[in-house]
Amino acid sequence: MTKTVFYVEGMSCKSCAAKIEQACNEVGAIKVQVDLVQKQVEIEHDPNSLEAGLLKEQVEKLGYKIV
Ligand SMILES: [Cu+2]
Question: Name one GO molecular function term (predicted).
C-alpha cells in the first residue's frame, strides 16, 4: 500500500473535497482524506493497480491544479 499526498490548488470547500474524493474512489483508491485547511489530499492506494499519475489526472480533470 502506498500513500500519495497532493497539494491541490483551488480546492476550497466541502463540495470540492467530495468531488475529489469521489473521483479518486472511482479509479480504485482505498482511502481518501481531504484536508481543506492545508489544501492537501492524502490517498491510500495499491501502486500495482493504481498509479499516482492516474490519481493526479483524475483530480486535474475536475479542474484543480496539483502543485
Ligand atoms: Cu468547492
Answer: metal ion binding
CA of 7 to the centre of ligand 1 (A): 15
In the reported structure, the alpha carbon of residue 18 is separated from the centroid of ligand 1 by a whole-number distance in angstroms of 9
Rounded Cα distance, 5 and 16, in Å: 16
Q: How many residues does the chain have?
A: 67
C-alpha of residue 38 to centroid of ligand 1, in Å = 14
Tell me the mean pLDDT in the region 48-64. 97
Integer Cα distance of 49 and 3 in angstroms:
14
In the structure grid, which three cell numbers stand for residue 52, read together? 499516482
